[in-house]
Specification:
Rossmann fold, elongated, 12 helices, alpha/beta, 318 residues, 34% helix, 5-stranded parallel beta sheet
Amino acid sequence: MSTGRPIVLVADPIDAGAIDRIRSGPCDVVDASGGAPTLSEHLATAWALVVRSRTQVTSATLAKAPKLSLIARAGVGVDNVDVAAATARGIRVVNAPTAATTSVAELAVALILWLVRELSGPVAATRAGSWKRGLAGHELAGKTVGFVGYGRIAREVAQRLAPFGVTAMAFDPYVATAVDATALVSLDDLLARADVVSLHAALTAENHHLLDARRLAQMRPGAVLVNVARGPLVDETALLAALESGHLGGAALDVFETEPPTRTALLAHPKLIPTPHLGASTPEAQARAGAVVVDEILRALRGEPLKFQVNPEVRSPP
């Protein structure tokens, strides 16, 4: 039986502690994280919708949710949410931009070190019973790391890499002044000079396949590429060609154009490190993401201003 209170519909699994906190608020919680059939059943009555990256919030989804007032993305990117359609409907969209900063930054550092030391081959050989010693990769000290996108996560990576003695540069058309010693340069300059290119840009219509065959060819011979941002920033067909030709020394992808990835030749390439989009998948990051979106939901229920609204042009209802 309906209580008449706002219904918060949880579409994807989030931190259990966050669920408990939502339940303590002036609302009813429906856990539909089991999958699409359960979600569709409850959309008609939902006041708020909580998602991670699995659920695609399309215009068709919104059409099934006439009472929806708030969409809370328990993570950073909102490319799985049709923000324009939500805005047109007067639905506020919030995210948790600070939740995964540490986890994603640490993963990026780990992948950079793995690539520069060229550890994949020695690890595989040792597992297979071989004891093949010899030169193994390079030192990170003295290398140039180029960040494509220089927001919160990229700056954290730069801070962690500084003690290694790297030179940092970044390309970001939305950043006018660096907050640290990182040099702001053009994308052409960055690709030509960086030993390591680390992607941290949000995905937009303009930067789809930002690193295509032409851009990958601009990278230094032997340079390595890390993508912990969004898969479609990289043309994976062109990346495979650059690895097969030997132009690139290696690549590490935590994100892919299609997830789960389907390009088996790329996944099998010995110079590729593939991980299953786990940058934010630590208990610490998920607890923070849950806490941030719950705080936003409770603020909305109390009629208070939101801190992390993605579409601020949509005002709170009177």
